[in-house]
Amino acid sequence: MKAISRTSLIAAGLLLLTACASDPRPQHDFIRVMERFGGTLPCSDCQGIHTDLILKRNASTGAPAGFYLHEVRIDAPGGERVNSVWGQWSQYDRDGNLQSELYVLQPEVGKLRRYQASADGKLQPLDDRGNPINSAEGTPVVLKRLASEVATL
C-alpha cells in the first residue's frame, strides 16, 4: 500500500512539474518608434549644415507618424542660421529593392526632402531629381543613426 501511494505521489509531482512548464519564448516583433539621425551636409555658401533628423512611427503599426528636422548652417554669412521644420513622412521601396528604401519628408512649410535608407542604418540625402548628394570631394554624404527607441508588438 505504501509503495502505491509513494508511486502515486511521485507521479502526481511529475505531472505538476510538467503542467508548470512553459512553451519556448514567443517571438516578438520590434518597431523602431523613434529614430534619430545626424551628420553634416554640404553647403554652397557655408562650411556645412549640421543636421539632426528625428523620424517617428506609430507604435502599433510601424507606419510613419511624423518627423522633426533641425539644421544649423555652420559659419554662414551673417552668423549661424538655424532652420527647424516638421511634418509627415512616407516610406517606399526604391525600385522594388528591399535593401534601399526611400524616405520622403513633407514639411508643413517648405519643399519635400528625400533620403535613401541603406541596410546599415544610414540615410543619404537626395537632390530634387532623386540623385545622391555628394561632398565637394565626390564622396557620399550620409546621416548616421544616433538613437532609436523600440516597442514590441
TrEMBL record:
Entry's transmembrane regions: none
Keywords of the record: Lipoprotein, Signal
Signal peptide positions (record): 1-21
Tagged with keyword Lipoprotein: yes
Pfam families, per the entry: NlpE
Superkingdom in the source lineage: Bacteria
InterPro entries in the cross-refs: Cu-R_lipoprotein_NlpE
Name of the featured protein: Copper homeostasis protein (Lipoprotein)
Species of provenance: Marinobacter persicus
